[in-house]
Amino acid sequence: MGKLRIISETGEPFSDRLEAGRMLAGELRGISGEKPVVLGIPRGGVIVANEIATELVAEFDIVLSHKLGAPANPELAIGAVCEDGSVFVDRRIASYVGADEQYIDKQRQLQLDALTHRAQMYRQIRPKLSLANRLVIVTDDGVATGATMQAALWAIKQEKPQRIIAALPVGPLEIMTKLSAAADETICLRVPPFFEALSRFYLSFEQVDDRQLLDILRQQTRTKAKT
Fold first, then answer.
1. Would the pLDDT of 28 be above 90?
2. Of 64, 126, 133, 192, which is most buried, counting CB atoms within 10 Å of its CB?
3. pLDDT for 172 beyond 90
């Protein structure tokens, strides 16, 4: 299990995703010299990641992966489909929930079809960065079940980075503890005593659409071209 660092146990809400990103950047400032790459999970996590990358003057990208949900419990991740079409399956969990090879193959194709469409749209603007031997920071705007973040961590590991840091604004203690097993270090700004809907922890929690996400990708691409 990796290191788990909880900054606060308060349930105080963030103003918005921008504030959450800046606060996470403050906790990560000590590693800026290691030239990390910051990955955001679409869609809300991309706003958080953009703030972190800007503050740390770090490279920015998105992580495209879809979880493979368990039979009769799609929120439980048994594996992940990666952007390149490869699949990671936690065989222990899959066996426990009765996910056989036929089920896994069917879910892989369903998730890969959806993932391919998104990748085509995003990668026209922002070509994928290699994560091999890199320090990777992956973030979202928070976690509830943790399934999406778990899938992202599994997918990132397939690329053999040097180190993975999961950095999150808010999440339940049980889920943060579970996620810390899949990352070298996990940082969470706020672990409230009672976790409700994720939106409860933001004063402004507007839906993020693809237009906003594509604007951020274009902005980051222009910034990289100038450096």
1. yes
2. 64
3. yes
